[in-house]
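Aggregate trends can hide what the representation actually does to any particular protein. This step matters because it turns folding into a mapping between discrete strings. For completeness, the protein is quoted in full, as a sequence line and a line of structure tokens:
=====
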Amino acid sequence: MPGPLEGLRVLEIGGSVAGAYASTVLADLGADVLRVDRAAQVPGEPHPPAPDPLARGRRSAAVDLRHPDGPAVVLSLVEHADVVVEGGRPGVAEKLGIGPEQCLERNPALVYGRVSGWGQDGPMARRAGHDITFLGVAGALAPTEPGGAPAVPPPYYLSSFAGGALPLVIGIQAALLERSRSGRGQVVDAAIAEGTALLAVMVDQWRRTPGRVTVVDAPFYRTYPCADGRHVSVGAVEPHFYRELLNRLDLGDVDLPDQYDEAGWPVLTEHLAAAFGRRDSTEWEKVFADSDACVAPVLAPAEVAEHPQLKARGSFVDVGGQLQPAPAPRLSRTPATAPAPAPYVGQHTAPALRDWGLGESAVADLLASGAVKGV
């Protein structure tokens, strides 16, 4: 059964991790995604690409945007697109001749989605950045400074994916809904720093004092090593979850500081660490299996597909011989199908261009001129 976005045509301008993730989400939900890749990256001969979850579920057309005819190819494709996803630095697409103004002139109903680190304007718009810098400016890094110690940067996906790509997808969907009423397209400007700040909206609500102490400093919200060297994660924030945690650890009758007595947290940490250190992680997993104490194992990426909950839900699927996360979220009537493996660059250049409205002779001329390239 086709996914809910069947019939939606998305033109992805390759090169951005956040843009690629947004396009993957759209492809997983059934959109026809055509990625414009760099002609210089076309392999000398066809070969299976390395498994790439960020390139799955779409076709690849290789276009030389530096060639005199390259931008015109993209603009021709834009005429048949519903959505463009672009993730270059501000001003780059305009310089190439494929920016929002040029594209909307060719297709006024187009939704032009773009994602960048700082947004399309402002004093830092054209400056480079990485996830840690966006997290820092967005206020999402400071809460990882336990007791004033150096911050521990979260993985990249908190900012580039959750803070950049997913707001872009939401914005694209909102613009498509509005287009169904007005018939007009528009530009979606997603900034990773802004999306990450939105993710951190609850940070101040977690503070216990006007100082720097937050829940992430607390002994009941951290990981602990077990006897086998593995770790468990603990998130017993609410008092009733915390009482359950102590009872399962056989600490319910021990004289301990109050849960939110911050002066007593070092003592409480010692007791919790000693308790978890008495058993292997697998034993603790059984102890807390039917509990609401919010205790769970810290699994390696290679282990997660075998976790009972994720396995029961089929949360991972085989994509070209590699186990990858299944499309999410799930829709009851029009569920997404298993994604196709990632293409190699230029794998679909000629057939995709024809499917997207270019004639046979035009495609042949473009291949001959070097404006596009295929294998």
